Amino acid sequence: MDIVRIATAGSVDDGKSTLIGRLLYETNSITQDKLEAIEKASKRRGVDYTDLSLLTDGLIAEREQGITIDVAHIYFSTPARKYIIADTPGHFEYTRNMITGASNAQVAIILIDARNGIVEQTHRHFYITQLLRIPYVIVCINKMDLVNYSESQFNQVKQQFNELFSKANYREQQLEFIPASSLYGDNISRRSEQMSWYKGPSILEFLENITWHEQETQFPARFPVQYVIRPKSDQWHDFRGFAGKLTSGVLKKGDEVVALPSQRSSVIEKIFRFEEEIDLAEAGDSVVVTLKDEIDISRGDMIVKKDQVPAGLKEISARICWLDHAPLKAGKNYLLQHGSNRVKAKVTNLFSSINVIDYQNIEGVEEIGLNEIGYITLKTARPVNADNYAANKLNGTFILIDEGSNNTVGVGFIG
Amino acid sequence: MSSTSTIPAFPRMLEDESIYIMREVAAQFEKPALLFSGGKDSITLVRLAQKAFWPGKIPFPLVHVDTGHNFPETIAFRDWLVKQTGAELIVRYVQDSIDAGKVKEETGKYASRNVLQTVTLLDTIEEFKFDACIGGARRDEEKARAKERIFSVRDDFGQWDPKKQRPELFDLLNGKINIGENVRVFPISNWTELDVWTYIKEENMAIPSIYYTHKREVIERDGMIWPYSDFLNTSEDEVPFEEIVRFRTVGDMTCTAAVASTANHVDDIIREILAAKISERGARMDDKRSEAAMEQRKKEGYF
Questions:
Q1: Comparing C-alpha atoms, which of B219, B220, B281, B290 is closest to residue B256?
Q2: What angle do CA B9, B15, B16 make, to 5 degrees?
Q3: What is the pLDDT of residues B192-215, one digit of tens each?
Q4: Which residue ranges does the record assign to the Tr-type G domain (chain A) (predicted)?
Q5: What local confidence, expressed as pLDDT, does residue B281 receive?
Q6: Residue A9 in contact with residue A90, Cβ under 8 Å?
Q7: DSSP codes of every residue in A35-66
Q8: Interface of A with B in 177-216 (CB under 8 A)
Q9: What topology is assigned to B12-197+291-299 in CATH?
């Protein structure tokens, strides 16, 4: 069974919670006790309708303020697929939470109020889907009921959005424009009867039919070693297995491989998925690999194919999104975590930050603040076996950890 | 759509993700532990840990905070599982915390030790200096849990600060902590109740007998069926009677309601869940105390 991960961004005003509530309601995913609890809570708050946002805004502070602060994960399924919605906040000050929720998504839903068209936060939401290279974006032009289901209004917003897309870098991203009314259930799971001019799919129909490129298996094999398994039992006396989750590509029994950073080569002897011996592991599989030769490999090392060895970077240029209250400054040291590999890194240069509205670089900045995006260069103490982010997404990202607070303070995209 | 009777397949990528998290815990922490309650979620965790480190043993102990109000079937199952997997088991008792005067037994009709166990848990973490505790919480259970990260940092007092959660990007997990802090880890965050059951089915896993239909002495309270036991404070008009029931979720005998059911096979259970109108935690009195019951307990160190 497939899992589709969806990120939604927006505020309550855009009808985001109502949209999610609709999807759950129309797929029979809200149980009666939860619905009753929401009805009760709605009454207590003095609103005269069932406020479906209460379903998603789970923290006391969120309910107090009527806003989404942190990512909520919401689950629903159809007979064909399991869906995980990362419901993320739309406000600028919670951008880091939005990135957290959206980083694993295959689909992003950007909500636009049909009356207002594109607003400032639409730019930011779209920029983040580009930054994270999310393959599909549903541009949901919502509240169509408030513009008399007008086709020309829809087309106008669509045109505005296409202008935005014309400036974007990640051209392979597929956009789907869907006019909807989440309040009345138009084009959510069923086609709308009010908009016969619209011939496209409803949101759920679209979600049920997407296939995201099985690209990861076509990329070079990257196997970061998480953990070395050495049972030292009588039965498994000499067993040395390298456990990890294959980031990209395919590894087969008999493949000639190289361990990094040692550059020692060997051949894959066996691949295990628990007790079962398998011939081949694909991107995303958690497996244990054994090699024919006894070579020194520990956590943080990477096993790759002999003819696909990555460069081993000690100087990294990257786009960075800053996630901490204390700003990023040139000259500071951090821990850089790439896969299972953690190395010391120094910010050598900080040369511009990006305006997410007009994509202009701002030169000569001194620091990059919370929720801002910029370009930096880093020097690392040991090589990092990364790929360019645009070429191999999951092997092209890293996080920066502050050595004082131990917090995750930044996320980087190499290249 | 949920009334369909075909049983969906378990999505294997969930297992890959959970095994990955298990291995990150073993690699990033010095003294991890797996919090074991004897319920289906923690049994699933044990299975995942077995798989993650095979052919090695599970490299951390199972820790059970025994409230003294457990179902006897759960305790029997726990001891069987420990023997079968060769895992190390540590048990600490809420009764000891009560005897030491650290917590006070609740009184009244709804008295339970659910809240009390937080103190015993925090003392156990302190005693063994555990820096990571693996728990079976799932995000689909409850809305405060829906907000929690996979690696959830707790301060010196075991408290969760929902406004200060670390960003978690892609599958990069940051387990670095300061002295005194510890991390709660939730490897099955993205599983739903249905996923757990389809996994139990496909893996052919054993579970405590109380998940299946059986005859039991019960009382009726607030429109729900409660297991009758010495631990339950009952009023005179709550007369115990026998009923054919099973448990959908397993907590203490004082806060877990039963459902009338004849399901005696995992397939029947899955069909029951597919058709259910009430959520899993609807049978948990501990959640019903207020809208924010779970968030409050989590802030205080509950897992």
A1: B281
A2: 125
A3: 999 999 999 999 999 999 999 999
A4: 1-216
A5: 66
A6: yes
A7: HHHHHHHHHHTT-SS--THHHH--SHHHHHHT
A8: none
A9: Rossmann fold (3.40.50)
A79·B1 Cβ contact <8 A: yes
Which of A115-124, A240-249, B270-279 shows the lowest mean pLDDT across its residues?
A: B270-279
Note down the domain range covering A374. Answer: 313-414
Taking Cα atoms as reference points, which of A289, A292, A290, A368 lies closest to residue A325?
A: A368
Q: Are residues A42 and A148 in the same domain?
A: yes
d(CA B105, CA A221): 57
Question: Which residue in this structure is represented by tokens 């800053």?
Answer: A322
Q: Does the distance separating the beta carbons of B56 and A231 come in below 8 Å?
A: yes
Minimum distance, in Å, between the CA of residue B100 and any CA atom of chain A = 34
Parse chain B into domains and list their residue ranges. 12-197+291-299, 207-286
pLDDT at A338: 98
> What pLDDT is attached to residue B77?
96
- Token code pair at residue A121: 């936060």
A147, A115 in Cβ contact below 8 A? yes
Looking at the structure of chain A, the number of domains it has is 3
User: Distance (Å, rounded) from C-alpha B212 to C-alpha A281?
Assistant: 37
| Confidence at residue A58, expressed as pLDDT on a 0 to 100 scale | 61
Average pLDDT for B41-48: 97
Is the Cβ–Cβ distance between A181 and A218 less than 8 Å?
A: no
Q: Which tokens sit at A371?
A: 């929720």
- Cβ of B2 and A272 within 8 Å? no
Question: Where is A229: in which H helix or E strand?
Answer: strand A227-229
Query: Is A82 within 8 Å of chain B by CB?
Result: yes
Judged by average pLDDT, the poorest of B185-189, B219-223, B287-291 is B287-291
pLDDT per residue as tens digits for the range A27-45: 888 877 777 877 787 788 7
Instruction: Among B6, B14, B29, B172, pick the best mutation site for testing chain A contact (most A Cβ within 10 A).
Output: B172
- Predicted interface score ipTM higher than 0.85: yes
